[in-house]
């Protein structure tokens, strides 16, 4: 039976800017990274050329997504400043930045709060078992280091997006453990706006020889995640990784209420093109759901923003 017209699913009209694809980690499922030194950094001039035409295209969120420069690299400060400047540029052109660039120091997070409406970092999975497999050469994927980022975001009152990567060699119990950890931190700090459940979807570049996460399992995971997570934490699924419309609708029926940033390219999963807004609207309408755009910050967090950012968000809320 169709649900009532008030049932809404959100998405963020977004564009992804990649300061650099270089990354010192080597996660074996990665389809994004380049070797350090092999990916020229985006200049502000190049970014401006990309951003200016987007002003007339209903894009609100600029997702700043980067590979990581090692914290002790002599280039780290320069890398961070480039990210900061790109955020500032996006803001000055009327967009709302959301940055997800891996592990940051407390001070770096504190500074990025001034030029971002929210930050993000996938927790992926907390089990240390993955440090012997897919994360063997990925020092940033230490579970305690990632949990620390969520704690600092809470202490700094930064609205935060995190999530799980499903199907990289973990067990079902590992899912519930990771979700429980997110839930506990949210109950302490009230700062998690959404949790992404991202099914592992093999791409052309990765060395991890493992099949895709079975999408038929996803509604069951969402149901259980909905039980574990506090009700004010939204569950997000990436629609380009759940390509069968019936299973997408099953995920929504199970409790997912957000489809994330929709833009021209999924930089993390470049082999899986985004389904565009109109096609998603049609799929959702067939089951009585309305697809509505949202900002990269949920309204309950607006009061955490500093002055200029609050004004920028107010303008978008109209
Ligand atoms: S998944 Fe992220 S951290 Fe891992 S290698 Fe790729 S870009 Fe680096």
Descriptive overview:
This is 7,8-didemethyl-8-hydroxy-5-deazariboflavin synthase. Its EC number is 4.3.1.32. Its cofactor is [4Fe-4S] cluster. Pathway: Cofactor biosynthesis; coenzyme F0 biosynthesis. Belongs to the radical SAM superfamily. CofG family. The protein is α/β, with parallel strands linked by helices. The protein has one domain: TIM Barrel. 34% of the residues lie in helices and 16% in strands. The protein is built from nine helices and nine strands. Strands 1, 2, 3, 4, 5, 6, 7, 8 and 9 form a nine-stranded parallel sheet that branches. Helix 1 runs parallel beside helix 2, helix 4 packs parallel to helix 5 and helix 6 runs parallel beside helix 7. The longest helix has 18 residues. The chain starts with 7 loop residues before the first strand and ends with a helix. The relative contact order is 0.17. The N terminus is likely disordered. The site of iron/sulfur cluster (SF4) has 12 residues, from loops.
Uncertain segments are 1-5
SSE class: alpha/beta
Report mean pLDDT, rounded to a whole number.
96
CATH fourth-tier homologous superfamily: Aldolase class I
> What small molecules accompany the polymer chains?
iron/sulfur cluster
Order of helices and strands: EHEHEHEHEHEHEHEHEH
Radius of gyration: 18 Å
Number of domains: 1
Helix percentage range: 25-40%
CATH fold annotation: TIM Barrel
Q: For this structure, what is the CATH class?
A: Alpha Beta
Main beta sheet strand tally, sense and closure: 9 strands, parallel
- Taking the alpha carbons of the first and last residues, their distance comes to 34 Å
């Amino acid at each position: 039976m169709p649900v009532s017209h008030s049932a809404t699913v959100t998405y963020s009209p977004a564009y992804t800017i990649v300061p650099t694809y270089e990354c010192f980690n080597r996660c074996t499922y990665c389809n994004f990274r380049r070797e350090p030194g092999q990916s020229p950094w985006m200049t502000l001039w190049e970014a401006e050329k990309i951003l200016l035409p987007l002003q007339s295209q209903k894009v609100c969120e600029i997702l700043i997504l980067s590979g990581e420069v090692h914290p002790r690299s002599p280039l780290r400060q320069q890398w961070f400043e480039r990210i900061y400047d790109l955020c500032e540029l996006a803001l000055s052109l009327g967009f709302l930045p959301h940055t997800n660039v891996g592990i940051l120091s407390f001070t770096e997070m504190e500074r990025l709060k001034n030029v971002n409406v929210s930050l993000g970092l996938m927790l992926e999975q907390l089990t240390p078992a993955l440090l012997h497999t897919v994360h063997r050469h990925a020092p940033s994927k230490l579970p305690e280091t990632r949990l620390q980022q969520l704690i600092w975001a809470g202490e700094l009152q930064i609205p935060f997006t995190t999530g799980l990567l499903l199907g990289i060699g973990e067990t079902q119990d590992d899912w519930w453990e990771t979700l429980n950890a997110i839930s506990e931190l949210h109950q302490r700090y009230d700062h998690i706006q959404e949790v992404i459940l991202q099914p592992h979807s093999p791409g052309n570049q990765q060395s991890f020889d493992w099949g895709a996460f079975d999408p038929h399992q996803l509604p069951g995971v969402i149901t259980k995640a909905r039980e574990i997570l506090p009700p004010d934490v939204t569950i997000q699924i990436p629609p380009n990784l759940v390509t069968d419309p019936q299973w997408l609708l099953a995920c929504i029926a199970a409790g997912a209420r957000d489809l994330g940033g929709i833009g021209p390219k999924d930089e993390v999963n470049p082999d899986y093109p985004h389904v565009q807004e109109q096609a998603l609207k049609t799929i959702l309408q067939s089951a009585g759901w309305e697809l509505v755009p949202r900002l990269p910050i949920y309204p309950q967090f607006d009061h955490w923003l500093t002055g200029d950012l609050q004004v920028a968000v107010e303008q978008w809320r109209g």
